[in-house]
Amino acid sequence: MTKIKCFLLLLITVGLMVSCSSADENLRAMIPDDAVAVVGVDVPTVLKKGGMSEKEGVVTIPDSLKKVIEDGDPNIFSDIIGNLPESGFDFTNRCYIFLSPGIFNAVALFPLADEEKAAAMVARIASGKMKDVSGVKFASHLDYAYAIDNDVLLIGRCSSTVAPEVAAKAAADILDKSKPSLMDNEEVVKAIDSKDGDVNAYVSVKSLGALIKSDSNLNMFNLGAPVIDVITGTDIKAVTASLKFDKSKKDGETAQVKTNLIFDKNSQYSQLYDKVIAAGASNSASVLGLIPGELASYIGIKINGSNLAQIPQIQEMLKMLDGVPFTKGLNYNDILASLNGALVIGAENATTGGYNIVVGSQSSNPAMVVNQIVDLGSQRGQEPLLRDGEYFYDYGSQGIAVGNNDSAFYMRCVDFGTQYTAQELPVLPENLDKCAVVIFRFLKLGDKPEGFFNWGLKDKSSGEGFYFAEDEKANVVVSLLKLLCWKEPGTSSDEEDNVDYGF
């Protein structure tokens, strides 16, 4: 009898495993082979670590997350997460998000346990019942499309304004799963199935560059210069990333991030890294001490300016800058050639509109750089105020200040008085000393920091970072979900939709 019970238990366990695997494979087959990026989310693990799923298949929303959803204006995340308990989702399987060059620039695929509940949730969000269009249950709201078929909910964000019938047909083609899938690629499967992360991603670098340049709105960030080509024009094949929520930290929970660049050993990228990255440069304090610490975002890169100036794309960019009236007359080649070490840019939205921005860099001749800028202003009748060794140009709330120390220079354009420097920020100084590229960003709900994210490229291929909640007692999963759900009250939906891509 005991053996029979054990055998039945084994059969049930195997049956559950096969069921989960079948649902997962169903979603994977829907990810088209022209997708430029795919993200897999281990939903059961994320919900469990977030304290949102104490019982399998049952989800509760923490009060702190409910409050954020209620206080902010609705967005796609708050709509979905706020409705999770009655969403009809299958919380025992993964969900997937992918980017593509088709009708939808971003698509999310969710497995369903109850189609009727999912349809009711969509009806609440889209303010209207789903209808049968192109063989699927379909609804649309703003530039989002919702389709249900075969126990799957598809949410797609349209890349341009299209008729509902066109969006429904595009959704039906994805849900059909009869076409080749990106998940047929073993390299992609290895990345998405990595045990390193609760959320895993695979991004095709060249395809992503092509997608950006094909979209007129996205391509505005290229500013007519080959900035994107410097990154995507190399032979880096792909980037993989994993995010893992860690509850074992004594000083609070964190979300660990690991990234890996995929490229050939003797690739163009590898040679470029060896030539341009000033990996041995340290003493980042010389530049971080000149930059305000109150900005929201920072990016730093260690560069050998002399070698960087010789790259064809950079030379093309410098030629373009020579034609800009405001800065025409600066010797960009001399300035760039003097850079040797950490180049740091800090930025955030300004209260008066536009951006607060600071640029600082280690330099072999920082006084030369500052003198060039001051001389150019003087030639145009703009004499600066000199105070405390700093040249200041009064342009209203966002005056421009220029200055240097013995080994670095800076240009600052901000609408606030600084109280502390970037050298006093957590993690950033240490990362900039040991990494080739660093990113640091405060993540806020309104004016209040919820936490910060940092990342550093340690060598040619591998990078590491983490998200840390400001409140050490906070659940880091819930903290991140709060940030996804928050949208500033009073923000114009139309305005946000013009600049907020993907999800």
What does this structure look like?
The chain has a domain of 197 residues. 34% of the residues lie in helices and 27% in strands. It is built from 18 helices and 20 strands. It has a 20-stranded antiparallel β-sheet, sandwiched between helices.
Task: Present the secondary structure layout.
Elements: H1 2-28, E1 37-41, H2 43-49, H3 63-71, H4 76-82, E2 95-99, E3 104-111, H5 115-126, E4 131-133, E5 136-141, E6 144-149, E7 152-158, H6 164-176, H7 186-192, E8 199-204, H8 205-214, H9 227-232, E9 238-246, E10 254-262, H10 268-276, H11 285-288, E11 297-304, H12 305-308, H13 312-322, H14 332-338, E12 339-349, E13 355-363, H15 366-379, E14 385-387, E15 390-393, E16 400-404, E17 408-413, H16 428-434, E18 437-445, E19 448-457, E20 462-469, H17 476-485, H18 493-499
Antiparallel strand pairs: 1-2, 1-8, 2-3, 3-7, 4-5, 5-6, 6-7, 8-9, 9-10, 10-20, 11-12, 11-18, 12-13, 13-17, 14-15, 15-16, 16-17, 18-19, 19-20
Largest sheet descriptor = 20 strands, antiparallel
What ranges have pLDDT less than 50 throughout 5 or more consecutive residues? Answer: 1-20, 215-228, 492-502
Shape: globular
From the N-terminal CA to the C-terminal CA, the straight-line distance is 54 Å
Q: Decide which structural class fits the backbone.
A: alpha+beta
Keywords, please?
18 helices; alpha+beta; 503 residues
In short:
By secondary structure, the protein is α+β, with helices and mostly antiparallel strands. The protein has 18 helices and 20 strands.
